[in-house]
Every structure is written in C-alpha cells, then in structure tokens.
Fold:
Amino acid sequence: MNCFGCRLANQLEEVNVVFENDFITCILDIEPLNEGHVLILPKTHVKELDEIDELTMKSIIDGSILVSRALKKIYNPDGISIMQNGGIFNDLDHYHMHVFPRYKDDGFGWLEPNHQSNTDLEHVKAKIIDELSHVEK
Structure:
C-alpha cells in the first residue's frame, strides 16, 4: 500500500486505535489540536467525500457520533469540532475526518473575511439548484 492513509487505517503503521469496525479505523492524531483529537479513516482507499460508498459513510458518521460522546464525557469540552479537508487541503491524500474537543480560548479558529460580502445569494442559490438537478445521485 503506497497510500499513507490506507496504511494508517489498516494498522500497517504504528497507530493508537480507539475504535474500529469493518469499514473504518479511528486513531489518535499524532499532532492533536487538543487532547483527544481523533481521525476517522476508511479502511478502503478513497480520497474525497464524494467517492465514499454508503456503508462506509454510515460507519464514518456513526463513528463520529460515538467518538464525540466519549470525548464529551472524558473532557467536558465547550464543544466538539468535526471537519474534513478535500482537494489540495487533504494532507493524507486519503479521506479522513477530524473529531476533537474544543474550548472557548483554545486558539483554534476560523478566520472570517474582513469585508462585507457582496454575494447575490439568490444568484448563487439558482446556480447550485440548477447544478444539483444534473448531479448524479
């Protein structure tokens, strides 16, 4: 397996597994944003969200719920963040979801633009609705 994400998911690399089933492996992130930061990886190779089959996606969602509940009990965080990065922002070239506890002043953030958006939401809505009518389901 040339894919590092596949090697992690299938435990061919040293990992700290917190949960797994036939479809996914949940491991501790080696560079956690906060203690308890977990990665959920499919055991089969997929790079992007839209490549994931229905059973694997259900396992990812169920795993994220299970991990979130455990993190809430253990760490009593102010919240839980769940995210995944696609395209050039996917640093493993293998789909993975991050689940981690959050605290009010933990320093993790989302930077909003400093300007007011001039986006025509009706135009954007129409473009997306039109494209969705052509997207293969």
Q: What stands out?
A: Strands lie at 17-20, 24-28, 38-42, 79-83, 97-102. Residues 54-75 form the longest helix (22 residues).
